[in-house]
UniProtKB/TrEMBL annotation:
The chain crosses the membrane at residues 12-32, 53-75, 81-103, 124-142. Belongs to the UPF0719 family. Keywords: Cell membrane, Membrane, Transmembrane, Transmembrane helix. InterPro entries: DUF350 (IPR007140). One of its GO terms (cellular component) is plasma membrane. This is DUF350 domain-containing protein. It is a multi-pass membrane protein. It comes from Nonomuraea aridisoli.
Amino acid sequence: MTLLETLARGAGAIAAYAAVGVILMIVGFYVIDWATPGKLSEIIRQERNPNATLLASSALAAVGLIVAASIWASGGRLAEGLAGTAVFGLVGIVVQTVAMLLFDKVVGISVRELVKEPELQPGARVLAVTHVALGLITAVAVI
């Protein structure tokens, strides 16, 4: 394989993984949107709500960890890696969503209430760390 072919193959793989990663992040964003009252993008952009911003950002970071681990675990097998990335990313999003619902019901930290608060709340910090921790747990499980 020539250098040009190697570079083209590598660039194609990067573009494919990036596309799957972006799709997963958009799905994750809309799942958080579903869990919050109002339109999340407007709450972040117009209201500049720090709680909504932190929760969405941490969820996206968690998805990024899962995508990176899936790429690492693929061992250079592109088709398997892309399929694994999609499946494991979706599992990670589901796990994060279930955790948010459990924290609401069991611990009493409600995403719906947090995004109504104009100041950064301790509960948002707890849920943000939970998002990243679950992303890391999922990522390590993939590896």
